[in-house]
Each structure stands twice: as structure tokens, then as C-alpha cells.
Write a structure and sequence with these properties.
Length: about 325
Amino acid sequence: MTERVGLYLQDSHDLRDGLDYARYAEEKGFEAVWQAESRLVRDAIVPMAAYAAVTKKIKVGSGVINNWTRNIGLLAATFLTLDDLAPNRIICGIGAWWDPLAKNVGIERKKPMLAMRETVEVLRRLLNMERVTFHGEFHHVDNIELDVVHGRREPRNVPIMIGATGDLMMEMTGEIADGAVLNYCVPPEYNDKALEQLDKGLRKSGRKMDDFDRPQLIVCSVDESHDKAIEYSKELLCQYLAQQPHIAKASGVSQDVINQIQSILGWPATKEQIRTAMHLVPDELVNRITASGTPAEARAKVDEYKRRGCTCPILYPVGGNFKLLIDTFAQN
């Protein structure tokens, strides 16, 4: 039986190589390719359009964009355009962003839950091809609709999935979203509480967990050498634990380790700083919150996440051999 699996691409490779990885993942039976948008590096939309243009079946998702920096009309038009390029293959993964990055570019993330609720409501109505008037605290639109001159005017099938981390956002995700993009750099048991919160929200909307998609980002370092795979993951973890405190908190990492790493890494971190700080990341942490090691070890760890409620692992390749990871989880 074919299992669901996705590929997560970020910025550690040439952008054109990403097109090859998307095509190769499609050949190997992957369900989806997701493009990151986190630090001030690559935006998600341009690569998503490129992946959609060079593939035929694989779904293409944003993993995840934020709900603060794009006007709601432009956001809806963007996903309408992507759906024109790849009908019924586009997924809108959206999250509440994070500080200090948001603050450093002049955005005050006040009332993040209300902001997300308004975004999802207006975005969904626009993609349903409704004429919308909405006056909330964060979004104000008057009598607008997506103005399709050439193309399909029927409602678009673009699932809206929230990348939630905190308990309250996770509960609201179960209430209003089409699915949840579960976080990475967390142990499998993190999912237990996440599913409890999702279930609270699902009950509010009269839905059941079996009908709610829960793909999960998973850092995955695959190498024939166990030790090399662990080293690759340490390079990634030391940077993310220092720069994304919400992920560090969810990972259960000690504040002492975070403080030590932050004392070394700048913003953005240099390769030299990362090499200096990576030894502070314990092997035990790598084994607990990533799927790192030989192909067999990586598959076994991914299975743990699936047993704890992940419906579709979205594998974040760490290291140089992306195709080895794709081959490891190939479905045909």
C-alpha cells in the first residue's frame, strides 16, 4: 500500500536544483512538495510556481507563509493564480510568524489568534469566489471579489492549513482550518498534546479527527554513515534553536543550551559561527527531535511520528544528498 510522504525544500540548495528535486519526488511517488518561507531568504511563492510548472501530479504547498505581510486581496489572488497553474494541486500553509524577525521588520504581532481567524475567513471566502465585505480589526475589505478575466470562475479547491505551535492556536486550527501543519524540531510525543488541542477545536466545528489532515514537518538527515547524518542535523539545529525561540520551547531544549548557542551565533549566523556552536547540540537531542541516521534509522524515526498522529510526513532534507532521502522514502 502506498503511504503518504512529502518533501520540504528551503534554501540550502540552488533554486534550480529544487525543480529537479520536485520532479524526482513526483517520479518516486511523493504526494507533495512544500516550500519554506521563514527567515529573510527565499519567499515561498516563486518556487511554488516553478515546482507547479515543471510537475504534473504532485501537490505544491507553502510551508508556511505568514499572515502579516501580504494584503488579504493579494494573498487570495496569489493562490488563485497558483491554482490556475496547477488546478487542485495547491495547498496554502500559513502561520503566525515569529519574533524577533517580525518585530525587526516593523510588524507588531498583537492578537495573533484574531489576526489568523480573520485571515482564514476572508481568504476562504475570496477563494470560494464570493463578493466579500468584511470589517474586522486586521482586515477591512469592501465589496471585493477575485476578478477572473481568463480562467475558471468556480470556487477553488485550495486547502488552508495552519502551521500552529502554541496550544490556543492549535485549538483554533482544529476549529477553522482544513488541516494543521505540525511543527518540526519536536519529539514525537509532542503530537499527543497537539492532537488534544486540535480535538477541542474540531468538536467546536462539529468535525472528527479522522477527517482532519495533519501533515508534519520532520527534519530528516539520511546518510549511509550514521555519524555524518547526526553532524548534518547538528548544523541545522544550532541555528534554529537560537533564532526561533518558539520552536526551541516546543522542543523542550534547556535554556542553558539555548543561551550558549545564542552567545555564539549572530544574525544571520555565519558558517564559522555555526561550526563553532554545533558541538553544543547533544546527540540525544538530535535523536529525539529529528529523523537522522542511516536510511533504516530515518525510516524508523519517521514511523514514530506517524504512530503519534502525523498523517503525512513532510521530510526536510539535511545534508547534501537530497536524492538519497527521496529514494529512502520512495513509494514506487
